[in-house]
């Protein structure tokens, strides 16, 4: 020990000890030893107690696990309240739950879940006999609503859409831009529109554009056809719509859903896009419906209107809809703040038609004398879907005559065939 540490040790000695005589010192040391023994015994006792408590806790945990094995009952929390126990004066936190058989059950405690973690309308799993709450369950959604969540994005891209550059630009501006650069809207001080309606004749590519958006956007995409909302039981359609919006909201608000992080690379942008195809199925002008079915459809429409108004504070949920009967839509649906952006998808013009023909024949072996401009000129008034049909028919014609390359005459024959069908369908040329 060097002199420095020796001096330090001497400084730390209690001054009263330094003045003690030898017998006094011996007595002091004995006293200290007794104290040490006592402390050691105390420590041993506490250790033993901890061990016993741990054993007790393990036993209790096992008992809880054993009872948890039983099939549990699912209940809804209907009320939470705090009250003072008259005997002990303690503040008790109690819960009232409702079973599926509509019984109201009073639980004096929140069971195994923290009181603060549950709220009215939550689903909980309870013991069938004792109604002890075991755990809080995630929000339950109808399987039909869950199916609307597009997990696997379609592979269509804007490159496969011909002659709709202007429309694509407008759609991107109205739907994708508010998600990707919300600060731009804040700077200018405008609220991005909540709904976008695509309308146009059948087969002009409305659904195709929605599929491209689903692929291009980095947010949650929920897709449905409005006919899915027409259900057998009254109120089912409205309920599904409500659950759909709740599901969208849950995805937007939470960081994780069932343990899966929401800001994963697949969902870079926090937002949800709901796509309702063929919205005229529920969105037709309301009238004094005599029949029950008409009234039910009107009710579903009202729910949609209400939901679109309800999420006003949430700019991260957008609704995209498409229809080919815009004239029959209810005026309330298309008024400002709901589907205030309406984009018409017209029949393609000559350049559009050339592009569409090129897109759909890109994988065909084409003859060198083929002139797409000529073909497009002959297809006046054709929709994208009909132009696609022309390409398919041309290919089939080539196959029938055992040709190796698709030629101009195949296309011309194809146009004739599609035109015949068109006349039969539309009743005019
Ligand atoms: N502009 C286009 N470019 C490329 N292909 C197109 C275009 N328009 C339509 N098509 C083709 O036609 C098919 C049908 O189009 P789509 O389903 O988008 O029509 P729609 O407008 O939704 O019709 P509907 O109103 O009857 O539902 C598409 O899958 C696509 O192959
Ligand atoms: Mg469609």
UniProtKB/TrEMBL annotation:
Domain AAA+ ATPase: from-to ranges: 192-349
GO BP annotations listed: proteolysis
A cellular component annotation (GO) from this entry: proteasome complex
Transmembrane portions of the chain: none
Keywords: ATP-binding, Coiled coil, Hydrolase, Nucleotide-binding, Protease, Proteasome
GO MF annotation, one: ATP hydrolysis activity
Listed InterPro entries: 26S_Proteasome_ATPase, AAA+_ATPase, AAA_lid_3, ATPase_AAA_core, NA-bd_OB-fold, P-loop_NTPase, Prot_ATP_ID_OB_2nd
Coiled-coil parts of chain: 22-70
Pfam families with a match to the protein in the record: AAA, AAA_lid_3, Prot_ATP_ID_OB_C
Family note: Belongs to the AAA ATPase family.
PANTHER family: 26S PROTEASOME REGULATORY SUBUNIT
Entry protein name: 26S protease regulatory subunit 6A
UniProt source species: Hexamita inflata
């Amino acid at each position: 020990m060097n002199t420095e540490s020796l001096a330090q040790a001497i400084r730390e000695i209690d001054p009263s000890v330094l003045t003690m005589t030898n017998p006094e010192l011996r007595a002091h040391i004995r006293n200290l030893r007794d104290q040490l023994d006592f402390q050691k015994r105390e420590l041993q006792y506490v250790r033993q107690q901890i061990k016993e408590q741990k054993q007790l806790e393990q036993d209790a945990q096992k008992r809880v696990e054993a009872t948890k094995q039983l099939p549990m009952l699912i209940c809804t929390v209907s009320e939470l309240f705090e009250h003072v126990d008259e005997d002990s004066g303690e503040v008790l936190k109690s819960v009232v739950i409702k079973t599926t058989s509509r019984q109201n059950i009073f639980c004096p405690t929140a069971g195994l879940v923290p009181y603060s973690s549950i709220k009215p309308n939550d689903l909980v799993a309870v013991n069938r006999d004792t109604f002890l709450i075991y755990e809080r369950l995630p929000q339950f959604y109808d399987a039909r609503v869950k199916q609307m969540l597009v997990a696997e994005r379609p592979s269509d891209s804007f490159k496969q859409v011909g002659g709709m550059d202007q429309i694509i630009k407008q759609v991107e501006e109205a739907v994708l831009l508010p998600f990707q650069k919300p600060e731009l809207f804040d700077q200018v001080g405008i609220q991005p529109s909540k709904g976008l309606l695509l309308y146009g004749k059948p087969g002009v590519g409305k659904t195709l554009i929605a599929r491209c958006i689903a692929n291009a956007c980095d947010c949650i995409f929920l897709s449905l056809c409005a006919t899915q909302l027409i259900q057998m039981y009254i109120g089912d359609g409205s309920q599904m719509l409500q659950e759909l919006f709740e599901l969208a909201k849950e995805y937007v608000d939470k960081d994780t859903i069932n343990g899966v992080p929401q800001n994963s690379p697949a969902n870079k942008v926090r937002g949800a896009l709901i796509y309702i195809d063929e919205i005229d199925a529920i969105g037709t002008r309301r009238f004094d419906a005599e029949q029950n079915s008409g009234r039910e459809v009107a009710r579903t429409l009202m729910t949609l209107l209400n939901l679109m108004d309800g999420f006003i504070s949430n700019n991260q949920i957008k609704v995209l809809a498409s229809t080919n009967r815009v004239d029959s839509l209810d005026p309330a649906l298309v008024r400002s703040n709901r589907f205030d952006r309406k984009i018409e998808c017209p029949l393609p013009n000559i350049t559009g038609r050339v592009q569409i023909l090129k897109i759909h024949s890109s994988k065909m072996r084409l003859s060198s004398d083929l002139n797409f401009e000529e073909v497009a000129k002959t297809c006046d008034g054709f929709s994208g879907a009909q132009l696609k049909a022309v390409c398919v028919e041309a290919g089939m014609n080539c196959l029938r005559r055992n040709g190796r390359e698709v030629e101009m005459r195949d296309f011309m024959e194809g146009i004739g065939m599609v035109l015949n069908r068109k006349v039969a369908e539309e009743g005019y040329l």
